[in-house]
Amino acid sequence: MATTQQRCDRAPAWAQLQSYFETAGRQFDLRHAFVEDAGRFARFSQEAPHVFADLSKNLLDVRVEEMLLKLATECGLEAHRDAMFAGEHVNNTEDRAVLHTLLRAPAGAASNRTAGELQEVHATLDAMLAYAEQVRGDHTITDVVNIGIGGSDLGPQMAVLALAEFTAPGKRFHFVSNVDGHELAGVLRDLAPEHTLFLIASKTFTTAETMANALSAKRWYEQSGGTDIAGHFAALTTNVEAAKQFGIDTTFGFWDWVGGRYSLWSAIGLPIALAIGADGFRRLLAGAHAMDEHFRTAPLAQNLPVRLGLLDVWYRNFHRFTSRGIAPYHSALKRLPAYLQQLEMESNGKQVDASGAALPPGLGTSPVLWGEPGTNGQHAYFQMLHQGTDVIPLEFVAVRDAAHDLEGHHPKLLANALAQAQALMVGKLDAGGHKNFPGNRPSTFFVLEKLTPESLGAFLAMYEHRVFTSGALWGINSFDQWGVELGKVLAKDIEPRLATGDITGLDASTAGLLERLKR
Ligand code: F6P
Prior knowledge:
This protein has 20 helices and eleven strands. By secondary structure, it is an alpha/beta fold. It has three domains: about 10-75 and about 300-475, Rossmann fold, CATH 3.40.50; about 105-275, Rossmann fold, CATH 3.40.50.10490; about 485-519. Strands 1-2-11-10-8-9 form a six-stranded mixed sheet, with helices on both faces. The chain has a five-stranded parallel sheet with strand order 4-3-5-6-7, sandwiched between helices. Helix 7 (about 155-160) links the parallel strand 3 (about 145) and strand 4. Helix 1 (about 10-25) runs antiparallel to helix 4, helix 7 crosses helix 12 and helix 14 (about 335-350) packs parallel to helix 18. The longest helix is centred in the middle third of the chain and has 28 residues, at about 270-295. It is globular. Bound molecules: 6-O-phosphono-beta-D-fructofuranose. The site of 6-O-phosphono-beta-D-fructofuranose has 14 residues, from loops. 6-O-phosphono-beta-D-fructofuranose binds near residues 202 and 207.
């Protein structure tokens, strides 16, 4: 385990939290808490750059927060955070630094140790943004197709949609991630090679799905009469050599210290820059940097990502909640839950600590994250959130100012968000039987004044640091993803069997299914 990290279940405050949970935490009632403490909203709200968070409708009191903050200190959270910012190899299983924060640092803001990297970051950023501006000015390119998966898809896709308001007209953006040929074929159907730019986005440039899609796109381009690969294909990758082998000369690189799910700030963000322009992309970075500075310098008790990460530990390990819902009340944030799923579940879905030792029973790590835009969810699964047998903390993301002028819509939307959070907490106990709501169901309510590149950047950086915080306390390495490997290896073995029908050595279920699926 990295020396700066100390597992939370071994820290003295852990036992105190456990006994407090048994005596007071389990029975905590939000309705009483608000009656007893007129200052609760202020006490449990937090201002951070571009983001306001109301944590007051969560199942926690001052005593719990104090103990959680003590736990964070005992676990060396600040030292671990500083080690990440300083470029130490906190990704110990891959022996890598974790420096996505450097991607949004202004020139000259790095320590001596990372100054060289920051210079490279800015040189690449300038080149990529110059290219983005050139393509934006090229009116023959009407369609941009990003081919990538996981972090090479979810971040850019989510952000391009979220910032559609800032996108200049004249270009359509398509995202192809799935190896399912229906997806690529569906996109290609409406494209003309001379008007299309393909971005092959892959940190490793080896990911099977992306390589299959990239090859098919290239074949389609050539078969449709295209001859200018250099003008119609660009690669976004750390593996410049492999891109070259593939036949792509226009490459924007990044570095092994940028994790896939933390990469939208790097060359992987090119679709975002194409959509919102160089200035817009710099504003996105600036918003994230402002949140980085907040996380790096604010005292733990007023540090939004820290308070959120500690709440996550409290819910996961004491209340034993296994899931968290995300309800963005803004249709442009439609892909936010999918993006956050990878960010949190791929980072913190671990069962061994950073030293490789099994975590003890009860030290649960990443919850399941899921969600849909708010009012849609209300007419689908909110029933279960209000009256089901499980308690699921919900996160509301509301934007104060609308980007449209359709009369009456925005107040209706915001009223729904407020009402749902209120209903979850207050409940209704006098209607009888089927109509009763237990209430006391926790939620966090985020407010952005406007959905802008800055506020989106800040919100996403907040989430990254929150995931860092809970991962640091759990003592896990939040920056590797070995759990994705086994399935990839097995798929390689199975693929030729679908043609040959060979079932030797397969378990009976896989063999039976293969028999059904083979042609
Ligand atoms: O699913 C595993 C993973 O490695 C993710 O972490 C990553 O974002 C994705 O695959 C895509 O990887 P690459 O950018 O190397 O194609």
